[in-house]
């Protein structure tokens, strides 16, 4: 995908009318001679759930970390909420960071802190709030992600895998972000827990207007909650669009992934409920 790529207009209007909250252009990341990402372009639109997929080791985590500035990149521009991270002053950078939430794979909660304290970590880092207000906010976040109220004073070791994911999501939402990055949020969950987590993500998008960038291998998530899917291959985004676009895209990996045995086991791959205002439009790039 690039700015010159023709886009398919959706039923809700031309694709380019949507607000781009994350824009990645011509990104190049290498570790020594190992080039992981090259000439990579990607847009994420406000209010959508973008599913980001690709084979193992293709660079999904590397891209997420490069976007979050946890890894250096050799080339390329990354604009978040309209601002070029590399060109803004430190105060603006902090403001931008506050508008992002991240759920790392496996939750990555601080094991020595309770759920309440974990949720309050970003509040302590960025805000100067009285304890009573931070407690109220933490309680609100716990409720928002569907955890029982008594989970708030538990330590991560006392929680199930699904509860850890929810607690980590509550922490990612601590500062009411515009955009959340989720790294394989349903991995390790049983199918029911994973489906409930997907529903939670969709509900938060609908109620908070959240934009979601979700790295996932979970075909159920891709088919049920993602408005758009981007596929990483050959070091860049091979194609992005709806499930329907994936099914018709002529690439061996994309075909085997979306039409393979596991995909065929999902009974209703294109439920009508997938059509949302955020789903308007899709774009394709040329496979190389
Ligand atoms: N810090 C690092 N130093 C050197 N090489 C790295 C580093 N991080 C990632 N890589 C390399 O970058 C490539 C892409 O890794 P990455 O973890 O992004 O893959 P992925 O698409 O997320 O894979 P998976 O789906 O298996 O999690 C791999 O070859 C990996 O070895």
From TrEMBL:
The keyword Isomerase does not apply. One of its GO terms (molecular function) is ATP binding. Signal peptide: none annotated. Residues 268-288 are annotated as: Disordered. SUPFAM superfamilies: P-loop containing nucleoside triphosphate hydrolases. Keywords: ATP-binding, Nucleotide-binding, Transport. It comes from the Bacteria. Residues 273-288 have a biased composition (Polar residues). Residues 22-259 form the ABC transporter domain. PROSITE patterns: ABC_TRANSPORTER_1, ABC_TRANSPORTER_2. Belongs to the ABC transporter superfamily. This is ABC transporter ATP-binding protein.
């Amino acid at each position: 995908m690039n700015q010159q790529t023709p886009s398919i207009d959706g039923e809700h209007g031309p694709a380019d009318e949507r607000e781009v909250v994350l824009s990645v252009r011509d990104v190049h990341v290498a570790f020594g001679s190992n080039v992981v990402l090259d000439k990579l372009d990607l847009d994420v639109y406000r209010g959508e759930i973008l599913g980001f997929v690709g084979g193992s080791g293709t660079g999904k985590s590397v891209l997420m970390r490069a976007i979050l500035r946890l890894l250096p990149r050799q080339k390329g521009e990354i604009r978040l909420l309209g601002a070029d991270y590399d060109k803004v002053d430190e105060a603006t950078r902090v403001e931008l960071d506050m508008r992002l939430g991240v759920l790392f794979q496996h939750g990555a909660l601080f094991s020595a802190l309770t759920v309440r304290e974990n949720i309050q970590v970003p509040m302590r880092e960025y805000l100067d709030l009285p304890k009573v207000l931070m407690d109220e906010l933490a309680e609100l976040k716990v409720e928002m992600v569907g955890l029982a109220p008594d989970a708030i004073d538990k330590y991560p070791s006392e929680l199930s895998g699904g509860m850890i994911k929810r607690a980590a999501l509550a922490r990612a939402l601590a500062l009411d972000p515009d955009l959340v990055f989720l790294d394989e949020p349903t991995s390790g969950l049983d199918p029911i827990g994973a489906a409930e987590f997907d529903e939670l993500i969709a509900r938060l998008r609908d109620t908070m207007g959240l934009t979601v960038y979700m790295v996932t291998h979970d075909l159920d998530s891709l088919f049920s909650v993602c408005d758009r899917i981007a596929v990483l291959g050959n070091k860049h985004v091979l194609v992005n669009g709806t499930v329907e676009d994936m099914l018709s895209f002529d690439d061996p990996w994309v075909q085997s992934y979306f039409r393979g045995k596991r995909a065929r086991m999902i009974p209703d791959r294109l439920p009508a409920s997938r059509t949302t205002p955020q789903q308007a439009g899709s774009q394709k790039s040329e496979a190389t």
